[in-house]
Input
Amino acid sequence: MKQPPRHLKKRIILSAFILMFLSLNACKVTLLPGYDANISEQIVNTAKAVDKFYLSMQDNTSAENGGRAFSKFSEQYVNIEVELNALLSKNKIRPLNQNSTRICEITLELWTKYKEEHKKDNTLSDGLVKLNQKTFSDLFFAMQVAEKGKQIIGNPPQ
Output
């Protein structure tokens, strides 16, 4: 039996290798945690509480005459921090959930930082109130998108 030319053998082997490489590269398994409706709801509720906190502060108080003294808001800070801690704990115990956990950690770190700044300065300017509100709005949006992504991955649209 006649053997194929040597250059043809090399091409066949090279083609097979490239095809195998492309096939392996195209097949990826990405492991994600499942969607959790309770966490999704808690994200929305906590986001609303933070939004209400800053909107109330902005609309009902002013930086002048001690209207935004830390003592007037310390209980609300604690209540929201409790919610953020709960969100972080729930995300930490879910396997394969590093991204959502990290977003919660950042949110809690910033909440604590901004609370301590308010405590130290004993007031917040209108600009800081708006900036803090926007910062947390963006962080909660990231949490919501991450959770919604898990829902879509688990139940893709048809």
Summary: The first helix runs from residue 6 to 26.
